[in-house]
Design a protein that fits this description.
Blueprint lengths: L1 E5 L5 H9 L7 E8 L3 E2 L2 E2 L2 E6 L3 H16 L2 E9 L1 E3 L4 E9 L2 H18 L2 E7 L2 E4 L4 H12 L2
Parallel strand pairs: 1-6
Antiparallel strand pairs: 2-8, 3-4, 5-7, 5-9, 6-8, 9-10
Helix pairs in contact: 2-3, 3-4
Length: 152
């Protein structure tokens, strides 16, 4: 299990290859890549700034991965989340899960991302035109995370 919070971009191919390397039981790898959009809530976004609570953020993400491992047969997982100032099309987050079977990999990857959006201490500020605004949590993200609680 690897969790990194960093300003640097990441190489998806290299990260997935490193996660897979050395475990012949791996039969499935599922991944998610989050990217900065140039439009949010109908307004153009020129940049996004991400802040976090060092130490607490990594611990929260590790706990989310442990929860996923308790629900599904996860061989390994990786979460990389960027902080700092990002531009549209920049990668924000990478979640990769390996398992023996695709169902476990898909479910665990989606669970980790849903919980990451709602339970990890990150704060986003978007620059829209001549003003900046903090991005509030979305109701749809809360609903997505809640469905996992209801599934036990």
């Amino acid at each position: 299990m690897t969790v990194r919070v960093q300003t640097e971009d990441f190489d998806i191919s290299a990260e997935i290859a490193a996660l897979r390397r050395g475990n012949p039981r791996t039969g499935a790898v599922a991944s998610f890549i989050g990217v900065v959009r140039d439009l949010n809530e109908g307004e153009p976004v020129s940049e996004m700034s991400l802040e976090h609570y060092p130490g607490m953020t990594e611990k929260a993400i590790e706990d989310i991965i442990l929860q996923a491992r308790g629900r599904w047969q996860v061989l390994d997982a990786l979460v990389i989340h960027r902080i700092g100032t990002l531009q549209p099309l920049d990668q924000i987050v990478l979640v990769v899960v390996s398992s023996e079977h695709r169902g476990d990999a898909f479910s665990a990857c989606e669970f980790i991302m849903d919980y990451l959006k709602t339970r990890a201490p990150f704060w986003k500020k978007e620059q829209t035109g001549d003003k900046a605004r903090w991005v509030d949590a979305r109701v749809t993200d809360d609903i997505a995370a809640e469905r996992w609680r209801l599934k036990g």
